[in-house]
Amino acid sequence: MDLQAAVGKYLEVVHEFGQPMALYGFGLPAAELVAMIAAWEEDYHLHRHFELLPSSQVTAGQPTYLINGTAYSTILFRDTIRDVLGR
């Protein structure tokens, strides 16, 4: 899933920027999800436009994904991601 599609899916699920979304909301297999988010996290220019929330900070029972050595279960995009997408 490319970034634009991922942001579109995020907005479809949570309806506005700045709201947390469970990572499973992307509807991707775990390995694909982890690879996608790990790549975003390593991109300095992209990383500042989203936040990953560690499993310990969210509701129990959500699936967690080990991304670059940390367990996460939730993401939120800031509205500044639109600058990256050019819209």
Q: Can you characterise this structure?
A:
The chain is built from four helices and four strands. Helices cover 39% and strands 21% of the residues. The protein has one domain. By secondary structure, the chain is an alpha+beta fold.
Summary tags:
87 residues, alpha+beta, 4-stranded antiparallel sheet, 4 helices, 4 strands, 39% helix, globular
How would you summarize this macromolecular structure in one to three sentences?
This protein has 87 residues and is an alpha+beta fold. It is 39% helix and 21% strand.
Count of β-strands: 4
**Biggest β-sheet: count, sense, barrel?**
4 strands, antiparallel
Order of helix and strand elements from N to C terminus: HEHHEEEH
Helix percent band: 25-40%
Which segments are poorly predicted (pLDDT under 50) over 5 or more consecutive residues? none
User: Strand-residue fraction?
Assistant: 15-25%
Class based on secondary structure composition and strand pairing: alpha+beta
| Morphology | globular
Beginning-to-end CA distance, first to last residue: 19 Å
The total domain count is 1
* Number of distinct helices: 4
* Mean pLDDT across every amino acid position: 90
Radius of gyration: 12 Å
